[in-house]
Amino acid sequence: xxxxxxxxxxxxxxxxxxxxxxxxxxxxxxxxxxxxxxxxxxxxxxxxxxxxxxxxxxxxxxxxxxxxxxxxxxxxxxxxxxxxxxxxxxxxxxxxxxxxxxxxxxxxxxxxxxxxxxxxxxxxxxxxxxxxxxxxxxxxxxxxxxxxxxxxxxxxxxxxxxxxxxxxxxx
Length: 171
Hints:
Layout: E1 3-7, E2 12-16, E3 19-23, H1 27-39, E4 42-45, H2 56-69, E5 87-93, H3 101-107, E6 116-123, H4 131-138, E7 143-144, E8 148-151, H5 159-168
Helix pairs in contact: 1-5
């Protein structure tokens, strides 16, 4: 069984326990790496052609505009052959109760019929929001299972929780 861990993660200014903190590595990237350490697989980071603003509040304003417009921001690269993967972990920060629209750009590029989609997100209190429902719409014909929400400010301390969850989702 081949595993792909695809994610979008925000470095730099992030909301962190009620204030803004500058992160060298995004919370979602940290969780994605824990998943890879636990179950193996290939990591793939989604990156937008037009960067989101460095200022956190400007970034989430932009993300809200994209969500309202159902935008599909252009991304820099795609996985060359997604057909070889049976299980795809999909990670993102929860913005406005959803995954960033660049993840829709990525996922809609492929035929995901029959794939197992395992979502995970980082957030500062909103959990999975309605992103699992969003994934079921975007990933037509895929088996979208229940996701894992990790409080972003606790991502560095989440390894044991992430490991147990990831292993449960590949067996």
